[in-house]
Structures are given as C-alpha cells and as structure tokens.
Amino acid sequence: MKRCVVVVDLQNEYLPDGKLPLNNIVAAVGNARKVISHAREADIPVFHIRHESDDDGIPIFVKGSNGAQIQPAVAPVGDEPVIVKAHINAFRETDLKQQLEASEIQELVVIGAMSHMCIDAVVRAAADMGYSVILLHDACATLDLTSGGVNVPSAHVHATMMAALEFGYATVKSVDEYLSA
C-alpha cells in the first residue's frame, strides 16, 4: 500500500508568538519534524497543506503574511507539493485528491493542526474517500475551547478528537509507535 505524509497547516500563526497560538505546538512540530525526516529518508512522499485567507475580515492566515507561512522546522524541500486551501477541509476546492491519485497513494499519515478542525476534516474526508489513514496524535496540536459556558482544556479537546477519529476513521498512533513499526 503506497503511503504519504500529509502535513496540515503547521504555519507560523500557530506558534507562541502567532495570532492563534496552540497548546503543545512546539512539541507537536518537533514530532512532525521526525516524521517528515523519516519520510524523506524512506522516499515516502510528503504533501504540505497551507491555509490562506483572502478575506480582509479574517485577521489570521492572511495571504502573503508571515503567519500564513509554513514553519521553517517543517518547511517543504525540493519538489514536495504545497496545497493551498481556503477552507477547513484540505480536499475542498483543492487538487489534493488529484495529486494523491497521480502518485497512486492509498494510505495517508496525517500530522498537523488543529486537531479539532482541519485534522478532523481531512481525516474524515480521506477515510470517506476510501483512503487508509494513520493519525499521529502527538504530532498534532489544538487549543482550549469554550462552548455553552463550558471551558474545555486543549488536552481534553485533543483526546476527544483522537478518540472520535480512532473509533471509525483512522488508526491513531504515537510518533514513536509509527516510526518503530
């Protein structure tokens, strides 16, 4: 089964000095870097996803801004494709599916941000399209949320998303489990 790594939205905006800092982003990026390095050494294709906003009313991921750039620690090299998206789901109105098909990919290893948004969307969409998905939980990050007056710590948001996705959409592993397999 031909595999690729999909690096979702590991952009400067999510760093501690960005406009939307995520909890545990530094550790997640460190783990993502290990996965990307392994993929490059093993000739596993790496696809980078980058979110950009053209809407002047949205102050994050503004096209051309530093915040919209992929973090240097996980930046593409050589001819690794970068799919630019304007929506939460990386498959929506992009050529991601066509690029995966052209490379005869059958299995996606997903890493990146945010666990409860873009990771959730791309994992569910990929599984619904028939791809096998491995989700590396410690190479993903998110933030605290509030809903209906209930504050939900990022660790709970993240764990809930991983549990939900593992239930029927992906095999969820740690980076160490993945790299040692």
From TrEMBL:
Keywords: Hydrolase. InterPro entries: Isochorismatase-like_dom, Isochorismatase-like_hydrls, Isochorismatase-like_sf. The keyword Lyase does not apply. It comes from Pseudomonas mercuritolerans. GO terms for molecular function: hydrolase activity. CDD domains: nicotinamidase_related (cd01014). Gene3D superfamilies: Isochorismatase-like. This is Cysteine hydrolase. Residues 4-167 form the Isochorismatase-like domain. The keyword Nucleus does not apply.
